[in-house]
Amino acid sequence: MADQLPTYPITERTCPYDPPAGLLELQSQAPLVRVQLPTGPAWLVTGYDAARALLDDPRMSSDMGREGFPTLYKQKMRPVLKGSFMRMDGDDHAFYRTMLAGEFSVKRVAAMRPEIEEACDQLLDEMVRKGPPTNLHEAYGIPVSSRSICRLLGVPYEDSEFFTTHLEALFDPHRAGAPERIAASKAALSGYLDELVTRKQKAPGDDMISRLVADYLVPGKVERPELLLTSYLLLAAGHETTANMITTGTAALLMHPEQLTAVRDEPQLLRGAVEELLRYLSIFQFGITRIAVEDVTFGDQTVAAGEGIIVSPLLGNRDQDVYGDPHTLDVRRRSRPHLSFGHGPHLCVGHTLARIELQIAFERLLARLPDLSLAVPASEVPFRTETLVFGTVDLPVTWGGRTAGASA
């Protein structure tokens, strides 16, 4: 019976970097396990191969408007993603992916490298000038992420405090009063972006929103609400997740000094180290929701039409049949692609930008502050385990006399 199913989400962790013991127990049972969500039963996808297969299966729909679509929220609220391209299927989804593909192409993102490097260097200069200790999230993680997504979209960076404040509400849906806070923040950000689009129509710049206005809004290929929602989601996703990865990834390296030394002293490891940190941390922790539009079988288990699934990147990335010693951070690891950006047609559209941001942010940080260390005992670093995005938002760090020269 439904009331006998294990409840999900499970958030309590013994070690901040390891999945909850209750989740690992479910993973040991089968690649798909029935769980009880706040809205009813669904399948939790615990295995790597099952996750890839189901995320790539066109019989699994992202449309939140379908009856029985699974939700993780205890409080009733209007889902932020509902009606967006992230919740479309088939040709509708493909249209928006094509619209955005050029903006996140390898070539366009690579062209942003000098600006990201300059931003990192300037922020590190300011950190060194003020001296230790500092909260790395506020001094480095947030502004690196904000500057990059602002530059791409064409959002004035001087407005970053405004949208950072409102974006924080979106990633804590279990907090008391969350529905009202999320609705108010979404309205404020939508109003802000509406005014910004109007300005881009009158005075376009070299940025994504200007190009989407000229190429899609003006010719009538997309409606204004659709453009606003797309811009809103890209701003939110590009800001919060990357900022959190910079901060939480740095914390993980500082708490695993042998891994930190390897990355700092062997720059050729950096690209692989970023992928390992993405796998190891799996910061989008609760999972990816879908609903079956037809019966779908994986192994000896069948997800019936109308049943929901939650694909857990956290568990897929810790599948011991795929990753040797999966609960160990190993920056030298060479293994199969992780699931932290999803998989299949809905693979995160901004993964190219996120990867280059992380590579530059870690490279610049470790080169400039080679003796970076925690300013508090590791046990006192606070982690968020009940929010959509796992990690630490307060990372007190310090450094001594070993600093590289200021940027030119």
From TrEMBL:
Keywords: Heme, Iron, Metal-binding, Monooxygenase, Oxidoreductase. PROSITE patterns: CYTOCHROME_P450. The keyword Transcription regulation does not apply. Gene3D superfamilies: Cytochrome P450. SUPFAM superfamilies: Cytochrome P450 (SSF48264). Signal peptide: none annotated. Belongs to the cytochrome P450 family. This is Cytochrome P450.
